[in-house]
Write a structure and sequence with these properties.
Layout lengths: L1 H7 L8 E5 L6 H8 L7 E5 L5 H15 L4 E4 L5 E2 L3 H5 L8 E8 L2 E2 L3 E5 L2 E5 L9 E2 L8 E4 H7 L11 H11 L4 E10 L6 E5 L2 E5 L4 H18 L3 H20 L3 H16 L14
Parallel strand pairs: 1-2, 5-11
Antiparallel strand pairs: 3-10, 4-11, 5-6, 5-10, 7-8, 9-11, 12-13
Helix pairs in contact: 7-8, 7-9, 8-9
């Protein structure tokens, strides 16, 4: 509700605010109707018949927005809190030629590590002060993510078969493969919970480890395989699978439900290598 209020009060008004209800069962619809927000003519509710995950929700929302005549779509999760000037600052730089995004922060840190380009050098940072007014980045999350209809007409919609996890990573790789660049705009700010992760190094490579419940671990593992098979060639075997096995070792040390974690890794690897896509965690007995 705070996210929707912040969107409605942007200094640069949105033509429409589309709320994608992904077959929720948590009282979202009741809360929306009781709040009176839906009485705002720019608010539109798009209710999906079944839970299609984050990937399906973003894809459906993007498709609906462009069908309604949008030139740009600005996407974010329900736990995002855009500053009131976020859209205004973003639109100072956005063009139909590339993809742009707001900067997600919490407690004076970037909400997750960003890999930025300084000259010809790429480097990772958590410091918002490192982000210029406009800065090329390696990848962007679907949080404050802005894209023009002309780009979507060329590269398509987000891949719904991912269900959840890494769908934004795949979309950015697809866009870059088509010749588009990704830019972060440092003055367009969104408050968002910071990702909690630990950093490990193995053979000179840095690996970020995030604690996940088994059902999310399954998608994280499977979708890494999907991406590597599509974009990275032999690195699937030399980097992606070894990094997954390294994360598995960490999970066996730090996670509580080791059996379900092990099951999630195994099934994620198996389904990734055998191209078993879509929503599968319930069928696989993962919670």
């Amino acid at each position: 509700m705070q996210c929707l209020t912040a969107l409605a009060n942007q200094t640069q008004s949105l033509s429409k605010i589309i709320i994608v209800d992904n077959a929720s069962t948590d009282g979202t619809l009741q809360e929306l109707h009781q709040s009176g927000l839906l009485e705002n003519p720019c608010m539109q509710l798009l209710s999906l018949a079944q839970n299609t995950g984050g990937a399906g929700g973003f894809s459906a929302g993007m498709q609906y927005a462009f069908e309604q005549g949008a030139d740009y779509v600005w996407m974010m999760d329900d736990d995002a809190m855009p500053y009131l000037t976020a859209l205004e600052e973003l639109m100072k730089y956005a063009t139909p030629q590339h993809i742009y995004a707001s900067l997600a922060i919490q407690d004076q840190q970037i909400s997750w590590e960003m890999t930025v380009k300084n000259g010809d050098i790429w480097r990772a940072t958590h410091n918002p002060a490192d982000i210029l007014a406009e800065m090329e980045v390696y990848s962007l999350p679907f949080l404050g993510f802005m894209i023009h209809r002309e780009i979507v007409e060329k590269i398509g919609l987000p891949d719904t078969s991912f269900f959840i996890a890494a769908d934004d990573t795949e979309y950015c790789l697809r866009a870059k493969q088509a010749g588009f660049k990704l830019y972060l705009t440092g003055q367009s700010l969104i408050e968002h919970p910071k990702a909690q992760h630990q950093e490990y190094k193995i053979l000179g490579k840095k690996i970020n480890y995030v604690s996940l419940p088994p059902w999310k671990r399954y998608y994280d593992t499977r979708n890494r395989i999907f991406i590597a098979k599509k974009y990275f060639g032999f690195k699937l075997y030399s980097q992606t699978i070894p990094s997954i096995l390294f994360r598995l070792c960490i999970s066996m040390l730090v996670e509580k439900n080791k059996y379900l974690q092990l099951k999630a890794y195994y099934l994620g690897l198996y389904d990734g290598l055998t191209a078993q896509s879509g929503k599968r965690h319930e069928h696989r007995g993962l919670i």
